[in-house]
Amino acid sequence: MSAKPILKVLSGEGVWPPPAWLMRQAGRHLPEYRATRAQAGNFMSLCLNPELAAEVTLQPVRRYGVDAAILFSDILIVPWAMGQGLTFAEGEGPRLPPIRDRAGLEALDVAGAAAKAAPIMETVRRVRAALEAEHPTTTLIGFSGGLWTVACYMIEGKGGGEFKQARRLLHQDPAFFGEILAKLEAATLAYLLAQAEAGAEVLMIFDSWAGQLPPSAFRKWVIEPTARLRAALKAARPDIPVIGFPRLAGPMLVEYAASTGVQAVAMDTAMDPVWAAAHIPASLALQGNLDPEALLAGGEALQREAQGILAAMKGRPFIFNLGHGVEQPTPPEHVSALMRLLRTA
Ligand code: 1CP
């Protein structure tokens, strides 16, 4: 049996107080992150610099003693590795040349993606070695985007909106949409397996825009591809648990949990943890779901919201987290206060 609390929870064991980590724990709320990012230049050069990316991955582990390190990278590295252009304009989020026709689809190079993603795997190796040496109970989480969510950016060319082009395309030309997803699926599977080979102990699938879809499309473009990905991962690496995050799935979370084969589902901020505890079988772990704004606010709001989640999750396998990423203006002392509260839960 593993001595790592997160691996225990993901094997179905209840651990209390629950282990904890935070989405976007490595990022702009940390002064040490801002310093390292300035050294790297821009966000992409930070992601592709194994020394600096490993450093920022480890920063929240050192500062807060969180139970997981999540690889510092981005879900859009996979389309980038397939040859789709990707830039992060300061303060504007990602920009990609949108795929709207066959030429865009055919330009995607699945076979070449592994070589381009090689620096990310070097980051994984470095982080894992550092954890084994200095933080032996901390789990290394690798990740990818969910296929639907990454396709949203590939088709739309940017974030920030409602992904209407992507949503239109899947209804208007499901065959073409399916071809984009098939290439993305092959590249994503190889990318996740490479992370596992390099030392990731858990894989998380971020389907941040799952909640944009009606139930029929949710089944076809979120549940089915996630189940295929999960089955293929399991065939190659039965030892690696998977956390699924179909953000804003609402009641579709139940079907997602039952049909994808993941070991844990991550609850978004809007999910009622009491409802989730009643509807998701206790054989699966839950993760989440403190409002990042309550963490930013701190004080009474933080204590109250965190206690409510703990009360709902007590007695089942659970990993404490946020319902979405840490907000940039969050004072690091609030994160430290949250960790103190959790350690004495
Ligand atoms: O300038 C900067 O520092 C860039 C900000 C940033 C960071 C810190 C981006 C751009 N990506 C990341 C890192 C990142 N992204 C991680 C690292 C590990 C950690 O959690 O600490 C992870 C897991 C992601 C995943 C990611 N990227 C998601 C899924 C999770 C979520 O937040 O919903 C999504 C949707 C993205 C796309 C993306 N990348 C970056 C931005 C600003 C966005 C969102 C764009 C939009 O609003 O649509």
UniProtKB/TrEMBL annotation:
Tell whether Lyase is among the UniProt keywords.
yes
Write down the InterPro entries for this protein, in alphabetical order: UROD/MetE-like_sf, Uroporphyrinogen_deCO2ase_HemE, Uroporphyrinogen_deCOase
Q: Which Gene3D superfamilies match?
A: 3.20.20.210
- Subcellular location per the Swiss-Prot or TrEMBL entry: Cytoplasm
EC numbers: 4.1.1.37
Span of domain Uroporphyrinogen decarboxylase (URO-D): 19-28
Q: Which residues form a coiled coil?
A: none
UniProt cross-references to PROSITE patterns, sorted A to Z: UROD_1
Record field: catalytic activity: uroporphyrinogen III + 4 H(+) = coproporphyrinogen III + 4 CO2
Pfam families for this protein:
URO-D
GO molecular function per UniProt: uroporphyrinogen decarboxylase activity
| Binding-site residues for substrate, renumbered to this chain | 24-28, 74, 153, 208, 324
Which keywords annotate this record? Cytoplasm, Decarboxylase, Lyase, Porphyrin biosynthesis
| Pathway the protein takes part in | Porphyrin-containing compound metabolism; protoporphyrin-IX biosynthesis; coproporphyrinogen-III from 5-aminolevulinate: step 4/4
Site description Transition state stabilizer, residues in chain: 74
* Free-text function comment from the UniProt entry: Catalyzes the decarboxylation of four acetate groups of uroporphyrinogen-III to yield coproporphyrinogen-III.
Q: Which family does it belong to?
A: Belongs to the uroporphyrinogen decarboxylase family.
Report the NCBIfam families cross-referenced here: hemE (TIGR01464)
Cite the record's note on assembly.
Answer: Homodimer.
Q: Under what name is this protein listed? A: Uroporphyrinogen decarboxylase
Gene symbol here is hemE
